[in-house]
Amino acid sequence: MQKTVCDVLIIGGGPAGSVCAMTAKMNFPDKEVLVVREQELQMVPCAIPYIFSQTLGSVENNLVSCAPAQKFGISTMIGKVESVDTDKKIAYMDEYEIFFDKLVFATGSKPFVHPTLRESLNLKGVFTVPKNVPYIREMKEYTDTKNRVVVVGTGFIGIEMAMEFAENGKEVTLVGRSRHILKGSFDSEVAAMAEEIIKSANINYIGGEGVDKILENNGVVCGIKLQSGAIIDTDIVVLATGFKANTDLAEKANMKFGHYGGIWVDEYMRTENRDIFAVGDCAMRRHFITKQQSKVMLASTSSAEGRVAGSSLYGVKYLKHFSGTIAIFSTVIGDMAFASAGITCEEAKEGHADVVVGAFEGMNRHPAAIPDAQKQYVKLVAMRNGGQIIGGQIVGGQEAGEMINLIGAMIESGMTIYQAMTMQVATQPKLTAAPTMYPLTIAATMIAQEISKGCTLQ
Amino acid sequence: MQKTVCDVLIIGGGPAGSVCAMTAKMNFPDKEVLVVREQELQMVPCAIPYIFSQTLGSVENNLVSCAPAQKFGISTMIGKVESVDTDKKIAYMDEYEIFFDKLVFATGSKPFVHPTLRESLNLKGVFTVPKNVPYIREMKEYTDTKNRVVVVGTGFIGIEMAMEFAENGKEVTLVGRSRHILKGSFDSEVAAMAEEIIKSANINYIGGEGVDKILENNGVVCGIKLQSGAIIDTDIVVLATGFKANTDLAEKANMKFGHYGGIWVDEYMRTENRDIFAVGDCAMRRHFITKQQSKVMLASTSSAEGRVAGSSLYGVKYLKHFSGTIAIFSTVIGDMAFASAGITCEEAKEGHADVVVGAFEGMNRHPAAIPDAQKQYVKLVAMRNGGQIIGGQIVGGQEAGEMINLIGAMIESGMTIYQAMTMQVATQPKLTAAPTMYPLTIAATMIAQEISKGCTLQ
Question: ∠ CA(B279), CA(B284), CA(B290), 5° rounding?
């Protein structure tokens, strides 16, 4: 056994682990930070779907460079940590004993497949979407030779996979159990806009339907049977039915867990043991309003957690200002961007909060004759009492990607619609809506109007 | 004399006036709101430069629709108000006497030309850039027949005019008195990036030089003489040397004025007379840090003022949460967007504030193989004590247009770099930087590092 010593050991090199390592090194430059990860090569997780179209076209175009870690003076080892002794502070890996002072679990997540479909994973042509370079490379090679695809699952990975396969000329069916796609991120009327685009891309979209069975022929997939009894012939099935926390190692180490299987952490990403942290998809998350546990899994949330943990390893250096995940998210469907943050109106009505909604549809450029002008729809959700903005949904051009971050900052900073109404924004013909028709301020004004109706005697 | 009666009279129909009218109607639906404006047809002010290239190509493509005003139930009259009797509450226009209860000056601004050059305005081929449809139409027709242009002034209108003329194949010289373009919005190193793009568009850029004289030949411009003595031959001179408040009417009405000529107003856009308001470029503005008067003129700022006034006409309905203009601004130069909010580092060092700066350059997509990936540079300026974000500059793709609004919201909500460090942002390969390399959080972290150096004994 060889011995290795470090101050901070981070197990996992995805977004959470790598941001945690960088942040730790920036905050505590004298500490030795070691990242151990299983794969030599790593991909950008959210860009995996683009490998299957001309957008990226290959796994090679989606590889993450190791240069930043080297630049920051972070050490890296490739291998699988088999077990951790949290009392002795030793991690065991092949022929290595790694002695640490602080440990961060950043072991990520793995695809979730419903128990009734799990044995079909052995069939040729049935895939999940793991963050695994050799697997995705093989999947790419196989799918390139086939024409018909069924994608199961209408979360963002399912939709992106379906759209990229379709763009690449395949015959695609998309099946989802929910009545509408992207449930939880968008209200029904917004999801319906996305469904129109999906259908116009020649995707056979089947909502509100579960998969009963995956059909085979000599160990090769040949179709799926829906719960309604309908059968769809196919060469490929992609199960994009969610992810679950990857906590094998933490379980062996007897860590405490949250409801959905994530490692229990406080808001500084500390476990019950003050020398052990967990970040990213393997850690427990809280909803920013209910403060209850949440199943949200996003690389951006993971990165934020990595930053919190990285600066809190040796005590609380910076006070955490915001509690819980706001589930902030964006994607591109066809030539429109869809983005969401906080809670939807439907979620709120299911019991979380007494809310008022304002929505405005305009153009993302001004005047409308600007060549790339597109429709821009913005919806805000605010507390009836107090007017704090707690949710937003955007459909628009590429600008939606940063506009949702503006809504995210509003939510995190407790901004009210009263502030948003007169907020100063930059507007420019080629970049934004008109100053007179800026959708966020109009949506905020609509909410203020609605609230004040209940406050006056008129 | 015909008599007309309204509750709220708004003089001027630009962004400030029209937003004020809409907001007034939304807040006080029972009040009769009348907008009087001089021009039958109106343009989007910020899009005027795009008339001179293929982007819009004509004045017609830049006209503003009157539909929103009609939809909101706002009345409109075309004509010039000659005088106002603020005691009797009557405005005089041609054959009309307009009786009002509340009056809003929204008379905008007009081009400023240095006294030594003013008489050259009579020459054929010498233009300013007023928000005037017949003038711009004539200017478009004239410039279309000529090849050589000198644009004087390196504010955003000057730069946009120069770039659009160049795109349209003209031989363009751009002359500015400041050493760098866009002074006040960008620090020198950011301005230098823009200057590189301007030069690579074959524009002859001459910085740090004033114009001594405009040269003529039989009443037609033929060149300019710089203060250095150099002479540049040209067919057209465009003087984009700033704007000044248009306050002729307010002067006749004996209103009180601020330092730079704007009508004196409090933070609710009220003049000393509680029934009279002023909004937009004709009104006085304050700097958000020094609270001293500011010369900033932007349609977006004007719109925000219109919203404040529109809801405050009959008493303070909504508490104003933020005081002063943050000068938030964006533009496109070549294929890059440049955006700025708050104060620059150079401004701060000139005496406003003790600040720390963080800057990060990455890519606006991830991985970098995404086809439209571009460089993205973000710089933040924060208070050393307290860490409040008070300025930001962005160079990037089109997303910079909304990303600067995120920085604006951070400034307005008093967000600190400590909050920004762990802010939750949405990231998506086709829309944003990587979650691990999101430039705002990295710039904020750099500032926190710098501040904490001064706070510890290490």
Answer: 125
